[in-house]
């Protein structure tokens, strides 16, 4: 079975409120077995803006990655993320 990944590129506009999002998303990530491959860290954007915070999150399957995003737990956390950041998220099937 192929794994699923979230690839996020975010600009945090309210760092204090974003901390609430991080705390709130932990329940969904634990429930769906999320594993952070990349979370923050130094970066370069040689081809244009990509946000100031980056994450790659691995799930055991593409279906679990989608289920996590659509879960009631994550949808509640997402409200906090949208209040404190802008960005892009792709959910992709991988190797």
Lay out the secondary structure.
Layout: E1 4-12, H1 15-31, E2 35-39, E3 53-59, H2 62-70, H3 72-84, E4 85-93
Helix pairs in contact: 1-3
Q: In order across it, which strands form the biggest sheet?
A: 2-3-1-4
CATH architecture: 2-Layer Sandwich
Helical/strand content category = alpha+beta
The CATH topology corresponds to Alpha-Beta Plaits
| Radius of gyration computed on alpha carbons | 13 Å
Give the low-pLDDT segments: none
Sketch the major β-sheet.
Answer: 4 strands, antiparallel
Number of H/I helices: 3
Q: What is the number of E strands?
A: 4
The percentage of residues in β strands lies in 25-35%
Query: How much helix is in the residues?
Result: 40-55%
Give the class-level CATH name: Alpha Beta
Residue-averaged pLDDT: 96
N-end to C-end Cα span: 9 Å
What are the secondary-structure elements, in order, as H or E? EHEEHHE
Shape: globular
Estimate nothing, just give the exact number of structural domains: 1
By oligomeric state, this entry counts as single chain
């Amino acid at each position: 079975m192929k794994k699923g990944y979230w690839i996020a590129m975010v600009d945090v506009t309210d760092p204090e409120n974003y901390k609430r999002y991080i705390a709130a998303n932990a329940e969904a990530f634990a429930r769906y077995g999320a594993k952070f491959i990349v979370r923050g860290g130094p970066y370069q954007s040689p081809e244009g803006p990509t946000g100031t915070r980056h994450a790659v999150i691995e799930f055991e399957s593409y279906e679990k990655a989608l289920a996590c995003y659509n879960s009631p737990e994550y949808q509640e956390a997402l409200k906090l993320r949208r209040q404190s950041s802008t960005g892009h998220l792709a959910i992709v099937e991988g190797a």
